Amino acid sequence: MKLYKLLSFSFLLATLTSCTFTENIHVNDNGTGKFSVDIDGSALMAMAGDQIGQQMGAEAKKSIDTTFTFKKLFEEKKDSIAKLSPETQKELKKLENYVVNTKMNAEQKEFLMKISNDFKNVNELQDVLQALSAFQKLESAANATAPFGGGFGNNNSKLSFSYDGKKFSRKAVVNKKDAEKKQESEADMSKMIFASSNYILQYHFPKRIKKASNPNAVFSDDRKTITIQYPFTDYMENPDKLNFDVEFEK
User: Fold this and answer.
1) How many domains does the structure of the chain reveal?
2) Whose CB has fewer CB within 10 Å in the chain, the N or C terminal residue?
3) Pick from 186, 222, 228, 167: which is nearest to 24 by CA?
């Protein structure tokens, strides 16, 4: 299966129902680390694995376990990318070094996708699902039935992170002007499709956490990992609800 076809099909699965999105950040002592978004759609495969297998044809009879970079995928679609706006091409450029691992097995009812990247500084992190909305524009240019018309992951906000060894913060600032343009029908579709999906923040730090601003935060036994769970509709419709600050022990 070609990389573009596989990734497009994976995103289609992710927009159907019953998926868990986990935003993982592992921060090292020197501020470097690893960022990933893990998508688990196994619940969907358990409900509709046979139908999905039929849609994928003969390729579904074998399990899929593949790893590739967006850079390699974009090489396949360079002609189509050249036709996109400069702004969209710039957004796609941000994805080049992200690694995608997809595991899919209709027989075992498994669908897992990890989109990851190493970072040199927490402050350089961005919202990968927002960036993926640019990929959806590439898909919708070739397919009028692309999920959300190319808007999957676009929650009309700008996400930033900061970390100085003493404090950590995650902050999404909503672009109210763009949010107001969002049609009610699209919002209703989002609620219907993602009603049973969750978005989990799971951050791992090199220091013990003294306190966190979110009252729903759950700490690991060593207080170096924080986990906060939201309905996926909060990520899409109220991204600033996911904002929080962490203060570390001295």
Assistant:
1) 1
2) C
3) 228
> 92 is in which domain, residue-wise?
3-248
Q: How far is CA 218 from CA 37, 202, 203, 222, 249, in A?
A: 19, 9, 11, 12, 17
Which pair of structure tokens corresponds to residue 47?
């409900």
Q: Which two tokens stand for residue 96?
A: 């080049």
The sign of the CA dihedral 143, 146, 151, 153 is negative
pTM for this structure? Answer: 0.82
* Strands 157-163 and 20-27, bridge-based pairing: unpaired
- In 3D space, the residue among 237, 239, 210, 240 whose CA is nearest the CA of residue 226 turns out to be 210
| The residue count for the chain | 250
Query: Is 148 in contact with 163 (CB distance < 8 Å)?
Result: no
Outline where DSSP puts E strands in 156-197: 157-163, 167-174
Distance separating alpha carbons of residues 200 and 83, to the nearest angstrom: 35
Comparing CA positions, the residue from 70, 175, 172, 169 lying closest to residue 123 is 169
Amino acid at 76: E
CA 37 to CA 113: how far, in whole Å?
8
The total of other beta-carbon atoms located within 10 Å of residue 100's CB is: 20
pLDDT in tens, the chain (250 residues): 566 666 666 666 665 557 889 999 999 988 899 999 998 988 766 665 555 555 555 555 567 888 988 888 888 888 888 888 888 888 888 888 899 898 888 778 888 889 999 999 998 887 787 777 777 666 655 554 444 344 556 788 889 999 999 999 999 998 876 555 555 545 555 556 667 789 999 999 999 999 999 999 999 999 999 999 999 888 888 899 999 999 999 8
Question: Distance (Å, rounded) from C-alpha 99 to C-alpha 77?
Answer: 17
